Amino acid sequence: MTTRDQARRRPADARVETARAAVTAVAPPTLPERLLAARERKGVDLYRAERDTKIRARYLAALERGDWKELPGAVYTKGFLRNYALYLGLDPDDILVQWRSERGDNPPSEPVIVVPRPIVAPRQGLTFSPGLFVAILLVIGIAAFAVYLGLQLLRFAKPPTITVTDPATLVTEVDDSTTTYTLRGTSQSGATISVTTPGRDASRTTAGPDGAWSIDVDLRRGRNQFDVSATDPDTGKQADQPRQIFITVPFSVVLAPTLTVDQPNDGATFENGAIPVQGTTTNATSVTVTASYLGPTGIAAPVTGSAPSPTPKPPSAPAPQTVAVGQDGSFQAAVELTAGRWAITVTAASAQAKTTTITRNVAVMFKGVNLVVTINGNPAWIKVWVDGQIDPTITQAGKTFNDGKTLTFTGTRSVEVRTGNSGSTSFTLNGTSLGVLGKSGIPETWLFQPPDPPVKTQHQ
Asked: What's the 3-state SS for 203-259?
């Protein structure tokens, strides 16, 4: 090459070097720089971008730093880049291409030299070291315990079942001479079987290893109801669907009803007039309760020297009550009685008009003092002391009341009444009518302090 050619070549080389320097000076921004610049142009910080894109700020910061190791993986990184590019107004496909280029995912431009793999020694057979053996035993033990725990949880969560095989039907009728019956069925092994009957104590038995159980129950004439249930003794859970069995023993037409009166007891004393009557019967369609007055109790005649008082009129007996008989043969009623001695008669009647009767004698003695004052005929002025104190409704001056007026006074120990017209003032003490205690137009004072008889005093 001549000297002239070399001179011509130098300016061209200089221009190439200058162009290369210019290209180097204006190299395109990297992917992290593009993301950062785009976010700053948008005018948001990382926390605002996190709220808008639902991408954690730490991952957005890693994208803007190009710290790919801080990201969860290539699949998530591509998703983050695509969503972030769309949010910043960039082309997501262009962003992904640049990410692959800067990440080094482009295929190599030169052939890859494959280095021969070294010869690998043949694998040795499986050897059991003491540590491996212990680990296997531990894994087996843990698996067995997990199975056992699962079975126990299943057992605790599942209630026992209960079935009745004898009788085969829910409603059964037996001979009229049958007095007992053996119920049979199945449940889970060891379950507690309970048989309850309305009005009777429950019977219990335990299911055998095969789940079979049997129990004897007493039968009464009529319809017998039995509720059969099972309880797991370990968990306390009861069967979800208890069984209900009905066994009917027919009545013989020649038999009279049986009757048992649980209340009241014979000779009982009551402090109020509401007397409970209850009991059980068989072969009866109805029960009738009646009450008869026998005489007073706790009230005597006035003391000697006082004005004679008329004999108290016996109280009216309540009307007879007819009460229904339950399926289990039970019945109950309440009889309202006044003070005195009473005979309560309970009669059970069958459909064939056979009857059975039981009588209980009771006494009604009111607690405290309950005095009813009634004005009959002419007006009467009265003044009242309750437990020694002036009654506030009557006041110290007393009051005059016309015919037909009824007043009630209640005390703990005593009630004392001053009347201006004894013949027009009638008294009823603790449910017992005493009538008038004096003569018409005569002022008198009477002290009522049961169980003592009424006493005339000089209190004014």
From this structure: EEEECCCCCEEEEEEECCCEEEEEEEEEECCCCCCECCCCEEEEEEECCCCCCCCEE
